[in-house]
Amino acid sequence: MRAADRPIAKLLLDRWSPRAFDGSDLSSEAIERLIEAARWAPSAFNLQPWRFGVVRRDTPSWNEALGLLVPFNADWARWASALVFILSLRCMPGQDPGARIPSYSHSFDAGAAWTYLALQATSMGLSCHAMTGFDVAQAERFVGATRDMRIEAIVAVGRQGRRDDLPEPLRHREHPSGRKPIGELMIEIAAAPAKTGG
Which of 4, 128, 133, 157 is geometrically suited to a Cys-Cys bond with 70, CB 3.0 to 4.6 A? Predict the structure, then answer.
């Protein structure tokens, strides 16, 4: 069982990234609930610079989508119910009509959307595992990404399966991971001393 060093919402501790999925199908309604949650994430200027490409396991494009993953990921992700491609938009509207300028926070904002999706999945009794081990160029072609888009991750979504069904090397890793202590992560920045006249 995970234990937080300070009181936090239980949902945050319940969320983790298993690799064992049960191979069952997910309804369109369930997937749309995940995307609905993700679209409520915060973003700079409320531009919502994210897009979601969804491939369900019961569709003809499933095997092609799996083939984009590195073999290590494809070996376990094939039992997921869906793969969700999370894309961010690198540019945002400029001041001049039709102008596009680089967005500083596109990846940051898409990461927030992914978090909302993952927490919604947990609240529904589902599991998610985000991956960056995939063929980027082929994945861009697969989803029809424009030059303005970056594929941040591919997320396996589904119902958690049995650890014993995983390949042997992965079974001992199939448990919620811990976290570094707050002291290693938080840097407290003291206020600068006030300047005196002179």
Answer: 133
Q: For residue 105, give every residue at least 6 positions away whose Cβ sits within 8 Å of its Cβ, in sequence order, or none.
A: 43, 44, 49
Question: pLDDT-based confidence at 198, cuts 50/70/90?
Answer: low
Q: Do 115 and 130 meet the contact criterion of CB atoms below 8 Å apart?
A: no
Cα separation, 32 vs 40, in Å, equals 13
Let me know: does 75 contact 47? Beta carbons within 8 Å.
no
Adjacent-strand bridge partners of 86: 52, 153
- Cα separation, 137 vs 143, in Å, equals 10
Number of H helices, E strands in the chain: 8, 6
Distance CA 198, CA 65 (A): 67
Contact 84, 91 (CB under 8 A): no
Contacts of residue 187, Cβ cutoff 8 Å, sequence gap at least 6: none
Nearest one of 146, 59, 153, 165 to 110, comparing CA atoms: 153
pTM above 0.85, yes or no: yes
Output phi, psi for 157, to 5 deg.
-130, 140
Residue 39 has pLDDT above 90, yes or no: yes
